[in-house]
Amino acid sequence: MTNVQTPHIKPNGVEIAETILLPGDPLRAKFIAETFLENPVCFNEVRGMLGYTGTYKGKKISVMGTGMGPGSIGIYTYELIHFFGVKNLIRIGTCGSLQENVKLYDIILGMASSTNTNYLHQYNIPGQLSLPASFELLTKAHNIGLEKGAKMHVGNILCSDIFYNADKDAMKNWMKMGVLGVEMESTALYANAIAAGVNALTILTVSDSLVTGEETTPEERQTAFTKMMEIALELA
Ligand code: HPA
């Protein structure tokens, strides 16, 4: 399997682990590999979408950037699952809070992904498909988070195609329906995983609030990110 290449991932013989952490930012993937993994080896540089494989507490794990939006994460996760045999895909990202009680730096476990993208049209579902996270990864992450004293919320998240929305009320009805936070990748990740019978989970740190308008600084995000990272790494 290690000699496989795809248009977007060329590992040159470096193995990709069955469990992979997926930040949006490829430089974040590099940071995670260099900070938390033992013996990290780079497996991808195509389009600067850096990926690494190493070990964490003796277990093999990979980490790779996904880029932003369903289209980008859709490509990478499809190739990881179908060409490289990846079985557990854990997105670690940031989101905007859609609820008053979901505060900056809180962690959200995306139990389900709602969306405004057209990504799901390819499956020709005669209705609205709901997209759950892997129950196994979700419960495991929740238990690890509880042990670490993380402030977590578990529920529905919104995967949006649009960051700068022309409609200033676009989030209003998602908020009313109890959606916890907005990000831009979970639907494509969950759909690809479900269609292939593998496991996926989205773990998010709240980086801004669409309720209060508050934002975090990059330095503050780093600290909050570490807690989320620790949960994700323990899933390996
Ligand atoms: N919208 C979409 N994605 C995001 C946001 C947001 O406000 N914050 C972090 N990721």
From TrEMBL:
InterPro entries assigned: DeoD-type (IPR004402), Nucleoside_phosphorylase_d (IPR000845), Nucleoside_phosphorylase_sf (IPR035994)
Keyword entries, A-Z: Glycosyltransferase, Transferase
Positions contributing to a purine D-ribonucleoside binding: H8, E183, M184, E185, S207, D208
Binding, phosphate: G24, R28, R47, R91, I92, G93, T94
EC annotation from Swiss-Prot or TrEMBL: 2.4.2.1
Catalytic activity: a purine D-ribonucleoside + phosphate = a purine nucleobase + alpha-D-ribose 1-phosphate; a purine 2'-deoxy-D-ribonucleoside + phosphate = a purine nucleobase + 2-deoxy-alpha-D-ribose 1-phosphate; uridine + phosphate = alpha-D-ribose 1-phosphate + uracil
Family stated for the protein in its record: Belongs to the PNP/UDP phosphorylase family.
NCBIfam families referenced in this protein's UniProt entry, alphabetically: deoD, PRK05819.1
Main function: Catalyzes the reversible phosphorolytic breakdown of the N-glycosidic bond in the beta-(deoxy)ribonucleoside molecules, with the formation of the corresponding free purine bases and pentose-1-phosphate.
Domain Nucleoside phosphorylase: 20-229
Official protein name in the record: Purine nucleoside phosphorylase DeoD-type
Gene Ontology MF annotations: purine-nucleoside phosphorylase activity
CDD domains recorded: PNP_EcPNPI-like
Annotated site, Important for catalytic activity, chain positions: R221
Species for this entry: Gemelliphila palaticanis
Complex formation: Homohexamer; trimer of homodimers.
